[in-house]
Amino acid sequence: MSFILTHAGEARSNGHTTMLSAGPSRGVVIGTDGYLELDGAFYNWTTVRRYSGRQQLVETFEPDRTSRGMHFQALELQRCVREGLTESPRLTLDDSIAVMTVLDELRRQVGCVLPQD
């Protein structure tokens, strides 16, 4: 399945996914002055490379990490619990519902019906 989303300021993003075969799960963010490329799966990246608009490597970021990619969420949960928050201001319940609404619409458009629907 492929999709194109339109965001504020006429920005667009696209994605491609399948459950029929394995793929690279790459992450690339393209901007007006260059792009970012994430090594590894987008949800468990190991290195980020920033390229100029002329496709020249500008910088490389390699974080110190020892987990498989969910540590950001765990650290945010820890912070919220410590501060007595019932949701994260970084990704609120409304934000999560908005994401799921988009995913539900994508499923509807391609005719994907789940048993719980």
Short recap of the structure:
The protein has helices at residues 71-82, 93-110, and strands spanning 2-6, 12-16, 27-31, 34-39, 47-52, 57-61. It is α+β, with helices and mostly antiparallel strands.
Note down, in words, how this protein is organized.
The chain is α+β, with helices and mostly antiparallel strands. It has 2 domains: 63 residues, no CATH class; 48 residues, no CATH class. The protein is built from 2 helices and 6 strands, in the order E-E-E-E-E-E-H-H. The protein has a 4-stranded antiparallel sheet, with no helix packed on it. The longest helix has 18 residues. 0% of the residues are buried.
Task: Write a concise keyword list for the protein shown above.
2 domains; two-stranded antiparallel sheet; 117 residues; 27% strand; alpha+beta; 4-stranded antiparallel beta sheet; 2 helices; 6 strands
Number of domains: 2
Uncertain runs: none
Q: Enumerate how many helices there are, as a single number.
A: 2
Which whole number gives the mean pLDDT?
87
Query: How many beta strands in the DSSP annotation?
Result: 6
> Could you tell me the strand content as a percent range?
25-35%
General shape: globular
Helix content: 25-40%
Structural class, judged by helices and strands? alpha+beta
Q: Quote the distance from N terminus to C terminus.
A: 19 Å
What is the spatial order of strands in the main beta sheet? Answer: 3-4-5-6
Rounded to an integer in angstroms, the radius of gyration calculated over CA atoms is 17 Å
The largest pleated sheet is described as:
4 strands, antiparallel
Q: Identify the quaternary structure here.
A: single chain
- What is the ordering of alpha helices and beta strands? EEEEEEHH
